[in-house]
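user: can you give me the structure for this one chain? tokens are fine.
assistant: on it. calling the predictor now.
[tool input]
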Amino acid sequence: MNSIIEAAREAFLIQAHCLKASLEYFDEAAFERAVELLATAPKIAASGCGHTGIACQHFVHLMCCIERPARFISPSEAVHGASGYLQKGDVMLLASRGGKTSELLPILDICRSKGVAVISLTENLESPLAKASDTVLKIHVTRETDRNNCQGTTSNTMINATFDALQAALIEKIDFQVEKFAVVHPGGAVGARLNNVQL
């Protein structure tokens, strides 16, 4: 097998192994607390840097799809007025594998001063981000998929998998009906199927 195909196959195996292993680190109490906060918050925001920030944009889209008002706030904009979107009772989700991302830490102070609950996703439960959060969802990363173990690949997969699990749980929590999704998602093949429209 040539090295290119071997690397590709190994990337699949690394991520599959990590997803399976992560169930051992699943904290049910912390997860239920996060779901409760998301289910009752008037508004939701999420922030992260790099690959994690892109994943956070996926998360807020998932929330909007089940009619939980949400938006992504970039770390730089958060400390230049965009945190005004959040009011007391709202939720901010902050994601950082190491839990020490310097751009995110000032957002914690803003949230505390405004009475905004914080959910964090991190691998480091002893990090400043984890310790200052209302609930922490631990991500577990065995290794990244590149040969140098430095690109945010497996970690991004684990963060997205956690976001997907949050949406699945929220659908149960709030009993979100597919008829509502059909209203906000009339486009594409999914919209056509839900609304019984022929493409």
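assistant: here you go. Residues 3-22 form the longest helix (20 residues). The longest strand covers residues 117-122.
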